[in-house]
Sequence to fold (242 residues):
Amino acid sequence: MKTTQPYQPLLLRILHGLTGLFLVAAILTAVWTYDTYDGRWGRIPLPIFKDIEGIHGTFGLWTLLIFPAFVVYAFHRGQRRLVQPNSIAQLARVGQPIWWYTLNRFTNTLALLALTFALFSGKMMDETWLPKGELQHGWYYAHLGSWVVMVAAIASHLLMNAKVGGTPLLLSMLTRKVRDRDSPKFWPEQVSQWRQNVRKGAWKTWFQPVSGLMILEIAILISIFIAWVLPVLNKAVESGLV
Ligand code: HEM
Ligand code: HEM
Fold:
């Protein structure tokens, strides 16, 4: 029954895998950072480790670097696995298989939004706040909240994927098998084909018709751009350069 095994394109596995790996590392080091510097809502007795903040920031930054590529993939080649124009109507078909597929698409989309919020609020953090004991900043609370939202989003994402495809679907994201026609040796050819099409004017139809998903993709990418630029501008204003 090999043909019924779910298969994930290699590019998806790479982008999804790296995002997931760095994100899980950021989530775990976030707990340790909270444990070291805060602990107002309970503590796990982890050793005090002041450098964990910088390590967390590094994993957060790596997630932020790979995330835009994953977003572009998910909204284009992976579009069918995100919310669709008819998704709301399909939510009425409670309990039918399509209902679970629709919920799965919602949780996929939600995971992207949750991560945008976590990365954005992380970029608004100042690394000096926690060492100085400043735990009252609005962005710090937002960033703490983003952890809860992210963990809930991943948990629902995993549950929904387990529900619609069971262990074979979950494992299909982790396998190293590559089908012949999905091999990276075709990538240069596909990129040059794509560039040729763009040159021939394919770009004219890119934003037509404007869809809800397109607006969502642009909103996420703009948020990431602002997350990079805003701290730089703030620093420039603080040091009197602007
Ligand atoms: C889903 C969970 C989280 C993600 C994806 C995440 C991601 C990030 C990102 C992208 C940065 C910016 C890094 C930089 O610009 O260098 C950051 C900074 C930071 N985060 Fe998180 N974070 C998460 C949860 C938390 C939690 C729960 C805490 C609580 C202590 C926390 C504490 C910090 C601190 C103190 C910084 C500033 C440190 C620095 O910039 O080096 N994070 N985070
Ligand atoms: C940590 C372990 C994770 C596992 C085991 C996992 C598993 C999966 C699986 C099996 C699929 C394919 C679903 C299908 O074929 O319909 C998928 C898709 C997806 N996952 Fe995850 N996931 C994980 C983490 C994450 C995280 C952290 C995010 C957040 C950004 C995320 C976002 C997505 C998205 C957006 C898709 C749809 C991809 C596409 O457009 O083709 N996943 N995931």
The domain at 2-238 is CATH 1.20.950 (Fumarate Reductase Cytochrome B subunit). The pocket of protoporphyrin IX containing FE (ligand 2) is lined by residues 6, 12, 16, 19-20, 23-24, 74, 78, 81, 108, 111-112, 115, 154, 157-158, 161, 169-170, 172-173 (CB under 6 Å).
